[in-house]
Amino acid sequence: MHLDVLDLRNFYYRTQLGRVAQKAIRDQVVTLWPPAKGETVAGFGFAVPLLRPYLADARRVIGLMPGPQGVMPWPAGMDNVSVLCEETQWPIETGMVDRLIVLHGLETSDSPAALLDECWRVLGPGGRALFIVPNRSGLWSRSDRTPFGFGRPYSMSQLDAQLRGHSFAAERQISALFVPPSSRRFWLRTAAAWERFGHRVSSVLAGGVLMLEVSKHVHAPQRPGLAAAVRKPLRVLEALPKPTAEPA
To answer: What's the first-to-final CA gap in the chain, in angstroms?
Structure first.
C-alpha cells in the first residue's frame, strides 16, 4: 500500500509533528553520513526531506518517487531533482550511486524483493544504503495519524535478515523518534530531549523508526577450472635435461 505524495508532503512540511519527525531522522542520517563532495546521493520513496544537507556538495542528488505514490517537484526554489519512476526499474545506470536512502519505500512496496534487487543494482561497489522503516515495537507504527502507521513494520532482526538475503552487509543500526506521535504541545516542545534520552537508553526504549545502514561488497568471481589448471605442473618441461653447474 503506497501513501499519496500529497499526504506525505503535508505531514512533513505542514504539520509540527511532521517537522519534528523530519528533524529527528535527518539528524541521525547526517550523523551517519556527513555531507561529502563529489558523491551521487539518491533517495527512494519519500526521502527528499533527508536529502537537503547533500545538495550543496554532492555531485548529484536524485529523489526517486514510485508511480503509485506520485511525485512532487523538489526542492522548492531550486532546480528540480525529483523523478517519477517504476518501483523496481529506476532511470539510473548500474553502479552509479554512492549513497542511497530509502524512506517510506520498503514497508509499502508491493514487490520488496525486486525493490531490493534494484537498490543493489544502482549502488556502486562499496556503496552504502540506509533503510528507514517503522519499528513494530514502537508507538509510531500503531498510529495511522502519521505515515509510519502504514505498510509493514519491522523488527531489526527482520530487516537485517531481509537485507542480508539480498547480499547486503549490515554496518550500523540505530533508532529514532523516541517522542510519542502526539501533536500535544508538551511532546512537541520536549521532542529534542526525548531524542537525546532515547539514544542513551535505546536498548530499553523503543524508537518509532529503525535505521539500518548496509554496504555493497562485490567479490571477485571464482574460476575453479582455471585455478585447477594452473595448479597442475607443466609436464612438457619434464623431458628437458636438468641444468648443471659450469666449471669455474
So the answer is: 89
Give the pLDDT mean for 209-237.
Answer: 66
Q: Which residues of 87-100 are buried (b: 16+ CB within 10 A; e: fewer)?
A: bbebebeeebbbbb
As a whole number of angstroms, the distance between CA 133 and CA 131 comes to: 6
CA-wise closest residue to 20 among 117, 125, 140, 105: 140
Query: Would you give the DSSP letter of residue 135?
Result: B
Q: Domains (ranges, CATH) in the chain?
A: 5-237 (3.40.50.150)
Angle (CA) 167 41 138, round 5°? 65
What torsion do the CA atoms of 35, 38, 43, 46 make, to the nearest 10 degrees?
60
Q: Which amino acid is at 143?
A: S
Q: What is the rounded distance in angstroms from the CA atom of residue 209 to the CA atom of residue 205?
A: 12
- List of E strands, 104-159: 123-134
Q: What is the pTM of this model?
A: 0.87
State pLDDT tens for residues 42-100. 999 999 999 999 999 999 999 999 999 999 999 999 999 999 999 999 999 999 999 99
